[in-house]
């Protein structure tokens, strides 16, 4: 009898707990559709007011965002949730270095957004559209932002070194060839201000060059070819020359020392995707205002950018696809650029005033909309692979950083990087 009473009591408690856990969402109870969006970092949609704008147009929808600060933590969780079919947001963000793995290994778990209502393929840059398209032809990711590259430079340092300072003339110094950028570095060094290097880091140069390559780490068949790719070896050799000839400040990007170097004016140039402008402004501070400017890169390239995907296991895939289409439409991408600096992957946004007329007073009133639009249109369709991030990180940190900071020979550093990468890829 005592056991029966205890069991009954436990049943009551369990039922109450289950009922509490399954309590209906008040917004859903009121007949609204709750859409969840999972992102990493300060993605920009919420900060730019886009969710509020969407719900004003669609009062029957409520949007809730969850954010994990670092993609290194966010992405493994996304893969786990896709594998289990649970714990997914209705819309999920994917970083460009992960999109190839998503489209090739998770395609059967994602909605085809290429034919979703409101999606216009022609509005996007062709190379960005291709990045989000799976081998079977379905477009699983809609592009948000991109990172078309320029070169940001210090006009005061260039003047003291006897080089041109006007942005068009600066761009002509190295137009068409990264080797001309290296040659400009040699000219700068000859009359450089004391303690000022030409460029921040050799790894940054290497990343910029590989970002403009068609075949870099993988080929069209999906085979790993980074160690035989002519584009990668060219990028390695040019970057290594910067290091061995003493043209760099020997810094590792995105470290406290690199941040401080912006404030100290320790280098004259940096490879500069569109999103880097805000970073420079923050780190260089008021003292850098009017000293920095923006010139075209030697060749067009891309560094960075993201996508939106819609998991089929989400609660509202059809409604989520409509939201993803709206968030990535040209008008919204232009708004995001104007308010947050995220450069549009939708080329149809470039003629809009928010992009076409964009200038930055901090960078000498540089016409950044025109500069980065031109760069974006010239980016080739780069073949992406599932382990691009692993390869790029090890080439930079295990390889080139050792040449730049420790004086390791380029050949020895290359061999070390290749061994590390091959081990990571189980080759």
Low-confidence stretches: 1-22
**Count of helical segments?**
19
CATH class of the largest domain: Alpha Beta
Number of strands: 9
Query: Which radius of gyration do the C-alpha atoms yield?
Result: 24 Å
Beta-strand share of residues: 5-15%
Largest sheet properties: 9 strands, mixed
- The assembly state of the depicted protein chains is single chain
Anisotropy-based shape: globular
Helix-strand pattern: HHEHEHEHHEHHHEHHHEHEEHHEHHHH
Per CATH, the architecture of the largest domain is 3-Layer(aba) Sandwich
Q: Please, how many domains?
A: 2
CATH homology superfamily name of the largest domain: Periplasmic binding protein-like II
Quick take:
Helix content is 47%, strand content 14%.
What does this protein look like?
The protein is α/β, with parallel strands linked by helices. It has two domains: 169 residues, Periplasmic binding protein-like II (D-Maltodextrin-Binding Protein, domain 2), CATH 3.40.190; 209 residues, D-Maltodextrin-Binding Protein, domain 2, CATH 3.40.190.10. The protein has 19 helices and nine strands. Strands 1, 2, 3, 4, 5, 6, 7, 8 and 9 form a nine-stranded mixed sheet that branches. Helix 3 links the parallel strand 1 and strand 2. Helix 10 runs antiparallel to helix 11, helix 10 runs antiparallel to helix 18 and helix 11 runs parallel beside helix 18. It starts with a helix and ends with a helix. The N terminus is likely disordered.
Overview features:
427 residues, D-Maltodextrin-Binding Protein, domain 2, 9 strands, 47% helix, globular
């Amino acid at each position: 009898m005592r056991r029966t009473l205890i069991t009954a009591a436990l049943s009551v408690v369990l039922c109450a707990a289950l009922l509490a856990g399954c309590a209906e969402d008040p917004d859903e109870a009121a007949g609204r559709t709750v859409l969840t969006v999972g992102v990493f970092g300060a993605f920009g949609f919420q900060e730019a007011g886009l969710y509020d704008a969407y719900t004003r147009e669609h009062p029957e929808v409520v949007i809730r965002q969850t954010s994990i600060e670092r993609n290194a933590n966010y992405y493994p969780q996304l893969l786990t949730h896709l594998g289990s079919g649970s714990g997914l947001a209705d819309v999920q963000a994917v970083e460009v270095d992960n999109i190839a793995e998503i489209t090739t290994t998770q395609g059967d778990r994602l909605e085809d957004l290429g034919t979703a209502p409101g999606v216009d393929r022609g509005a996007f840059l062709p190379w960005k559209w291709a990045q989000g398209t799976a081998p079977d032809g379905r477009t699983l990711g809609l592009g948000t932002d991109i990172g078309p590259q320029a070169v940001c430079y210090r006009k005061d340092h260039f003047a003291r070194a006897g080089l041109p300072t006007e942005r068009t003339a600066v761009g002509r110094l190295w137009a068409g060839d990264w080797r001309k950028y290296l040659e400009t570095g040699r000219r700068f060094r000859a009359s450089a201000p004391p303690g000022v290097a030409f460029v921040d880091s050799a790894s940054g140069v290497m990343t910029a060059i590989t970002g403009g390559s068609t075949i870099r780490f993988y080929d069209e068949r999906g085979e790993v070819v980074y160690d035989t790719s002519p584009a990668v070896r060219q990028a390695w050799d040019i970057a290594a020359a910067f290091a061995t000839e003493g043209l760099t400040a020997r810094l590792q990007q995105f470290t406290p020392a690199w941040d401080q170097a912006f404030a100290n004016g320790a280098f004259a140039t940096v490879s500069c995707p569109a999103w880097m402008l805000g970073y420079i402004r923050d780190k260089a501070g008021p003292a850098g205002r009017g000293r920095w400017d923006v010139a075209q890169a030697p060749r067009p390239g891309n560094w960075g950018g993201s996508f939106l995907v819609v998991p089929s296991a989400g609660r509202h895939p059809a409604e989520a696809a409509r939201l993803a289409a709206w968030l990535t439409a040209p008008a919204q991408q232009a708004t995001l650029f104007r308010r947050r600096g995220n450069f549009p992957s939708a080329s149809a946004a470039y003629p809009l005033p928010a992009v076409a007329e964009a200038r930055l007073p901090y960078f000498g009133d540089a016409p950044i909309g025109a500069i980065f639009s031109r760069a974006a249109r010239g980016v080739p369709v780069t073949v992406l692979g599932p382990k691009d991030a692993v390869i790029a990180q090890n080439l930079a940190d295990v390889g080139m950083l050792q040449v730049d900071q420790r004086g390791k020979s380029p050949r020895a550093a290359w061999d070390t990087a290749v061994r590390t990468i091959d081990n990571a890829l189980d080759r």
